[in-house]
Amino acid sequence: MTDAAELRERTRELLAAHPPATTDRTDFLQARFDAGLAWVHYPAGLGGLDAPRSLQAVVDTELEAAGAPDNDPRRIGIGLGMAAPTILAFGTEEQKRRFLRPLWVGEEVWCQLFSEPGAGSDLAALGTRAVRDGDDGDWVVDGQKVWTSSAHLARWAILIARTDPDAPKHRGITYFICDMTDPGVEVRPLRQITGEAEFNEVFLTGVRIPDAHRLGAVGDGWKVAQTTLMNERVSIGGMRLPREGGMIGPVARTWRERPELRTHDLRQRLLTLWVEAEVARLTGERLRQQLVAGQPGPEGSGMKLAFARLNQEISGLEVELRGEEGLLYDEWTMRRPELVDFTGRDAGYRYLRSKGNSIEGGTSEVLLNIVAERVLGLPTEPRNDKDVAWKDLTR
Fold it and tell me: Active-site positions?
């Protein structure tokens, strides 16, 4: 089994053969992937070495000390956090070799075509249709998706569509990889309360997807999607942060630097939120250690819940702390950003953008049900549509 000493040696060999100071960034990242040092717990030949996931920190520490470039993970977060683990779990060998390398290097950006205007919280009610053109032919997809981050940048999308309207809603879904450059794919910006169009709506009209781009068996799309969703919640709520990382950092800095803004009430609220943010950070560390041994579980839903609540409460406190300054807003020009930058903008942006945290990646109401049923073991909510054919559901 690969150990820490071997990984350090492999990393130093990579740095010697491809000095970061003189090597093109993309060339370096490709060489890192080929050396198995991209995600060390992945299989050999797919960017990894079948090593324990916990040893990734050994590689990252060596590369950071040498000034090596990273793959800009915030820009390609959907690919890294959602598409990659799903492809690894359900993809064919050909799919893994085709998609994982350019995904990790950042040559190809991914987006997620799941939510629809009539299927957000109740995702299994989705109505986008995929119809087979002949027994062995392409799939023809028609429908609409919404709240699609990075669709304006993406080359590929992970897509779920209904392939059997006669089956109950959870059973008639199939999972695909969609080429966003294909004819029939139209991306329209959705301008948010922040003034930006970070999200999009996507219209699919007669889009042809080869069967070779199907992930998992026909009709097993809900099962495949659960892997995506669990990884999504871990990637959103369980990101690695230093102490006072994330939203609590700017508030703590303002408190230290602006003593004239302090009040007793604000102090008590800040102390409470600081402790809760630190507890959430440490819980995330524990969750990542648990992931070393297997697949993500419903605990990620709890982390996502805490992430949304804390971001909204902390950003509200920051606006109050800054008083009139907190009502200022830096820029309202319509933009289509490549990533969400919570800490690089002003307090007004953080306050407005955090409102979406309890919606994106699964609403807080849905996640509360997941935690109740799958973590706490409470009785499930009654569902009278579980065995009803999708085509017979009231819409």
Answer: 232
